[in-house]
């Protein structure tokens, strides 16, 4: 089912933004600081009142339990209040499901493994490094096996190897039909790994399309006010400033 918003306006934050996101695609949302990326992601996750639809059903009227099964959201500044063990925290991702204990445990184990967190399972979340904590919080989202994953800067605190592994995992999920929507600041990540890029500029939709078009040098100059050149082969492009 598509996730769509038509003529979305959040006063002072988004102006007349229309997007239709498709399952099975990896979509990157890019834009300068304050452009409205987090606001758009939160709205698409149903966390702020707005005319967003999943298929033909308005998110606002959807049963919260059903919505939680469909949409997994990772906040940019998630900070668990309690020092739960990593395993207990990731298990919270199973809360919307009414499945057997064995199924839940299998999903938790798979999510921990996918994010390279299995060795941290018994640790308290407050004892982890920033990057480890970021991986665990994303593992919690993955454990819920949502149809849509909306993640706000999931790569921001990951080292090179974990970022590469996570991008491969997102690609595999998208190829299996999950809708993956990521806020990213690295335009090279968006260019090389996304199927589609949405560019926001000061609350407005500046571009929406395949990466080579949405992140053309002209768009980058216009939106980021930076003169930059793409170099290197397709799939491994680098941005030279
Ligand atoms: N709760 C709020 N109330 C009022 N204004 C807000 C609120 N949250 C964000 N804003 C403003 O809305 C604009 C968009 O913010 P948003 O967090 O969506 O930007 P962003 O593109 O995610 O930025 P960044 O790259 O810095 O994380 C900014 O000008 C911000 O100051």
Topology:
Layout: E1 3-10, E2 14-21, E3 26-30, H1 37-44, E4 52-54, E5 57-58, H2 64-70, E6 71-74, H3 86-91, H4 101-114, H5 130-143, E7 148-152, H6 160-175, E8 179-183, H7 187-193, E9 196-201, E10 204-209, H8 211-214, H9 217-224, E11 229-231, E12 238-240
Parallel strand pairs: 3-8, 3-9, 6-7, 7-8
Antiparallel strand pairs: 1-2, 1-4, 4-5, 9-10, 11-12
Describe the model:
GO terms for molecular function: ATP binding; ATP hydrolysis activity. Residues 3-227 form the ABC transporter domain. It comes from Novosphingobium sediminis. Keywords: ATP-binding, Nucleotide-binding, Translocase, Transport. Part of the ABC transporter complex HmuTUV involved in hemin import. Responsible for energy coupling to the transport system. With 241 residues, the chain is α/β, with parallel strands linked by helices. It has one domain (3-77, 146-240): P-loop containing nucleotide triphosphate hydrolases (Rossmann fold, 3-Layer(aba) Sandwich), CATH 3.40.50.300. 35% of the residues lie in helices and 24% in strands. It is built from nine helices and twelve strands. The protein has helices spanning 37-44, 64-70, 86-91, 101-114, 130-143, 160-175, 187-193, 211-214, 217-224; strands spanning 3-10, 14-21, 26-30, 52-54, 57-58, 71-74, 148-152, 179-183, 196-201, 204-209, 229-231, 238-240. The strands form three sheets. A six-stranded mixed β-sheet has the order 6-7-8-3-9-10, with helices on both faces. A four-stranded antiparallel β-sheet has the order 2-1-4-5, covered by helices on one side. β9 (196-201) and β10 form a beta hairpin. The longest helix is centred in the C-terminal third of the chain and has 16 residues, at 160-175. The mean pLDDT is 94. Residues 12-13, 31, 33-39 line the site of adenosine-5'-triphosphate (ATP). The site of adenosine-5'-triphosphate has 10 residues, from α1.
